[in-house]
Amino acid sequence: VQDCHALDLGCGDASTGPWLLASGAASYLGVDGSHRMLTQARAILSGTSGMVQLGDLETWEPPPGTRFDIVLARMSLQHVADLGRLLRAVRDACRPGARLVFSVEHPLLTCSHDGDWKDDVPRSWRVRDYHREGARTCPRLGAQVRKYHRTFETYFRLLDEAGFRLCRLSEGSPIPSEFSERDAYERRLNVPMCATFGAEVADAG
Prior knowledge:
The chain has 205 residues and is an alpha/beta fold. It has helices at residues 16-22, 35-45, 83-92, 107-110, 152-162, 182-188; strands at 5-9, 27-32, 51-54, 68-74, 94-105, 115-118, 121-125, 134-140, 143-149, 164-170, 194-201. Strands 3-2-1-4-5-11-10 form a seven-stranded mixed β-sheet, with helices on both faces. A two-stranded antiparallel sheet has the order 6-7.
C-alpha cells in the first residue's frame, strides 16, 4: 500500500484507516451512511491524515479530482441495490492498475435465511431461491436488515461490465490454527460465511 490513495466504502468505524496509513498509504478516505459510525471513525482516525465522508452508497459519487489506487468494501456491498452503478463510479475514480477488494456475505447465505445456528455460525443451511435474485429482509441485532442476493455469476458480470478484471476469489476457508476450540473450527467447515473478491482495473498498463 506504499504511497497508495485508499478508499473504504461502508467504512464503519474506519478501523482499517490507521493501519493503511501506518503501512505507507498516502491517503485514506472512508465513506459511510451512519452518523454514529462516522463519529467513532473520526475518533479512531484522530491524529492521522485520514478523512471520512457521510454518503449513501446508492448515490455516492467520488469527490471531484480524486483518484484511488486501492478501494475496499468490507461486508457492505450486499446492502446496495444498484451495485453496477456503484462499481462504475468506483472505476471512474481509479488510477491505472488500481485494485478493488470487497467482501460480501456468501451467496449461499443471502439467498435464504434458514439454518441451524450455534454461536452465530450455521451448522446446516437450507438453500432455496438461489437463482431468484433481489432484496431479502432478515433479522439482525433486533432490527430488520435489507440485503440483496446475487449469484456469483452476477458478481462476475457486474465487475466485468464496470471495467474490472477478477484476479482472486476467496470463500473464507477456515484455518485450524485460528480457532481455540476444535468444535468451533468443525462448525465453520459446514457452511461458507463470506466471499471476498480481488479485482483490478481491466485496462491497467
